[in-house]
Amino acid sequence: VDRAWKSLLKRQQDNGSFVRKPTFNHFLYTHAQCTIALCELYAMTNDSRLHEPAQRAVDFCVAAQSPTGGWRYYPGRDGDTSVTGWFVMALKSAEMAGLHVPSETWMRVGTFLDSVQDDGGALYSYIPGQEPKLSMTAEGLLCRQYLGWKRDDPRLARVVEVLLENPVEWNQQNVYYWYYATQV
Asked: What tens digit of pLDDT does each residue of 105-144 get?
């Protein structure tokens, strides 16, 4: 673990990013997942050496948020539910570690989720205007829980029934859906 976090920190740029050379759609996925790992490690260890790099990673997350409130493949551009979900998890990990996440960032995430919701917030699409997908619905609902929806919210309760009707099927692998649906 010690070697892993040192290796991760060697990859971090001065601006907080973990990606030196952006490639198509991996840039912000990579950054969000590295931020999750670093913030969770900091939260578990309270190692002071991790505080500053973790906060820089979070600050990069905040700076990379699009004007519409989500994240997509490159900083500051439109958003999609898939990438946005990873950033919500990273920022929630940061908060749990005691790091600063501006409240405006959370408000803008809510605005983005409003743009991809359907059925009053019970279903979610990948990008605004598309049909809802089960995987994006699971991710959108997890994000809503992180933003404060309670377990007994009627929209959440209604769709949990739909998720339960679509259990893990080993011969039809959809690990992305499984990951988010099991957390919801």
From this structure: 999 999 999 999 999 999 999 999 999 999 999 999 999 9
pLDDT tens-place string over residues 1-30: 889 999 999 999 999 999 877 776 788 999
User: Three-class SS string for the chain?
Assistant: CHHHHHHHHHHCCCCCCCCCCCCCCHHHHHHHHHHHHHHHHHHHHCCHHHHHHHHHHHHHHHHHCCCCCCECCCCCCCCEHHHHHHHHHHHHHHHHCCCCCCHHHHHHHHHHHHHHEEHHHCEECCCCCCCCCHHHHHHHHHHHHHCCCCCCCHHHHHHHHHHHCCCCCCCCCCHHHHHHHHHC
Does pTM surpass 0.85? yes
